[in-house]
Design brief:
One of its GO terms (molecular function) is RNA binding. It comes from Pseudoneobacillus rhizosphaerae. This protein is an alpha+beta fold. It has a single domain, classed as Translation Initiation Factor IF3 (2-Layer Sandwich), CATH 3.30.110. The protein has 3 helices and 4 strands. A 4-stranded mixed beta sheet has the order 1-2-4-3, sandwiched between helices. Helix 2 crosses helix 3. It is globular.
């Protein structure tokens, strides 16, 4: 689990990022979870945006992604979910 200090640090790093994935009408599926897991391995920190036409609420989407991709939820801000997962091979972020 991330500490408050680590979440603050990650939020500041995520501020400038653009959402890479969009969750729409289909909701979360296995393929999307696998892609998100792969991108997290490469980047460690990503944003996912939940579109207006998504059938599930953003909290449900966030928890599905966290469990599926084995990631940490940094924050949900508006319809944007910020996810973090420490990379095995491409470590870029040094948590405080």
């Amino acid at each position: 689990m991330l500490t408050g200090k680590q979440k603050r640090f990650l939020r500041s790093k995520a501020h400038h990022l653009n959402p890479i994935f969009q969750v729409g009408k289909g909701g979360v599926n296995e393929n999307m979870v696998k892609q998100i897991a792969d991108v997290l391995e490469a980047r460690e920190l990503i944003k996912v945006s939940v579109l207006q036409n998504c059938d599930e609420d953003k909290d449900t989407v966030a928890s599905e992604l966290v469990v599926g991709a084995k990631a940490e939820l940094v924050q949900i801000i508006g319809n944007t979910i910020v996810l973090y997962k420490e990379s095995v091979e491409n470590k870029q972020l040094q948590l405080p």
